[in-house]
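Got a spare moment? Tell me how you read both lines of this record:
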Amino acid sequence: MNATPDILCIGSVLWDVIGRSENTMRQGSDMPGRITQLPGGVALNIGMALARFGLRPALLSAVGRDTDGDALIEACKVRGLLTEFIYRSDDLPTDKYMAVEGANGLIAAIADAHSLESAGDKILRPLTDGSLPAPYTGAIALDGNLTVDLLGQMAQSPLLAAADLRVAPASPGKALRLSPFIQAKRGTLYVNLEEAGLLCQTAFANSSEAARALLARGAVRAVVTDGSNPATVGGAAGIVTQEPPQVHVTRVTGAGDTFMAAHIAAELNGHDAPKALAQALEAAALYVSGETTI
């Protein structure tokens, strides 16, 4: 597929194995439910949602030359994603993510993105070998499943100096990996309240407080969510806070990726900050209620 991408999605592309129960769960629970395997990973989830919003995303990631990898590449193509820039490894297996969810939300999850981390800067070859324009001036959605060293390089790289960088940590455990972008004063950070607290080494009562603290710490722009509580976009143009629609939650894995993709798509389509935030919150609400696929 030879087409020009509207946005690059850089980071994890893997298989999601999700176990869901309609019952409330706790540590040690053994409940009936459903187990599904679907294409996933932060970069891929964002890419799939962007495609649903009418954009043409290209993936930069690492996928093994194994049966799982071949099936994953085909699944990406079917979903309208450009896969020709993905690094295919002969000796690294295709990554996986496993989660257990109950009626009370995410119970536990394990992300095995070791192949992506091992591939390192090989996933960025399309930006250096002429496959993609350099320096890149378009939009880039980047997730924190890359190594600290590689994220640090990307925050300072002249290849990305003119790009519209949108960065998410992938999980609270990887929140500190976004620090180089704060230090370099680069990009828009997409974080939840817990991740904002980790980046600022404190706890926040709400998203508005967190967004203001991230800006004070050096972030150029920050988008902070807090589940069913108000979300905030903060930047040089000011602070916008909005309440998300209240819906019955049937799933949570992928909600943040859907929110981020919807927000990026709305802004790339020219919507102002209040309208873009409203559209992102609406898209995330539809997703967690089970009304839409990612």
Observations:
- The radius of gyration is 18 Å.
- Residues 3 and 44 are 18 Å apart (CA to CA).
- Residues 273-288 form the longest helix (16 residues).
- The chain has a mean pLDDT of 93.
